[in-house]
Amino acid sequence: MLDVRRLRLLCDLARLGTIAAVAQAHTYTPSAVSQQLAVLEREAGVPLLERTGRRVTLTTAGQVLVRHAETVLTALEQTTAALAAVATGLTGPLRIGAFPSAVRTLLPATLVALGHQHPGLELRVTELDPVAVPAGLRERRLDVGLLHDYDVVPVEPDPGLDTVPLLDETVFLAVPDSVPVPGSVAVPDSVPEAAEPLREARDAAWILASPGTLCHTATLHVCRTAGFTPRARHHADDFATVLALVAAGQGVSVIPQLAAAQPPVGVRLLPLDTRRRTRIAYRRGAASHPATAAFVSAIHAATSSFLGR
């Protein structure tokens, strides 16, 4: 009989690429991971790994086992969901991972609604970057999480997760009140009309997210589409900080709708032809779990209320 915990380690090795990365994800030592995978090989009766020096790759049998293991893990999630559905009342922890602007705007009402409807749930929120959510779900540190991408910088879906759409946001150019209104400066005709709000900001100082983040990449894309590369003065990842810097006349920045709900005095928001897309994610097979379904329903209601729909 193949051990489920060892199957998870093998799937994580296929995803992460190294035993060291798997060990870090599970707070194990690399030696412990290697020992567990060796036991799995004995259980399977065929070599699953090829070792060349310190490098480890999956054999053909290992790749086959990973594909079937993903099916097994999905089936276990479905079984857990089915058992939870026949239980009386929702109890136990519901671990939620969400990015800061969603935590500030959407989660408070979501948590209040869940607390009223399902007082037995232990609601636990972790604020984190969306790029960390898939690993948190796979490693069972989270039960549900929020992911986002931009239409100009789409992100490939994680094959081990299911998602449902939550929000399609307008993205704004945040500028100080002192910046002239769009249309007062001539720009080349080659610049697309969709980039109109950016034209005034081509020579401005910019407040960018940290290099390597999705927000940074999306900002570079929309600016280059408008025919220029932004000149960075400041780097900040917290949108409240970004807006405070804009209000202080320190530059301009790209801000999604959730983060722009209550801009400070001195900031104007100019809509761009770009969208940020947020999805609710959970492990494949967990969609029918009552706690997952309750969260999806509650955050959809909170989002509709926030948007005034």
From TrEMBL:
CDD domains: PBP2_LTTR_like_6 (cd08423). It holds the Pfam family LysR_substrate. SUPFAM superfamilies: Periplasmic binding protein-like II (SSF53850), Winged helix' DNA-binding domain (SSF46785). Gene3D superfamilies: Periplasmic binding protein-like II, Winged helix-like DNA-binding domain superfamily/Winged helix DNA-binding domain. InterPro entries: LysR_HTH_N (IPR000847), LysR_subst-bd (IPR005119), WH-like_DNA-bd_sf (IPR036388), WH_DNA-bd_sf (IPR036390). Keywords: DNA-binding, Transcription, Transcription regulation. Residues 2-59 form the HTH lysR-type domain. Belongs to the LysR transcriptional regulatory family. This is LysR family transcriptional regulator. It comes from Plantactinospora mayteni.
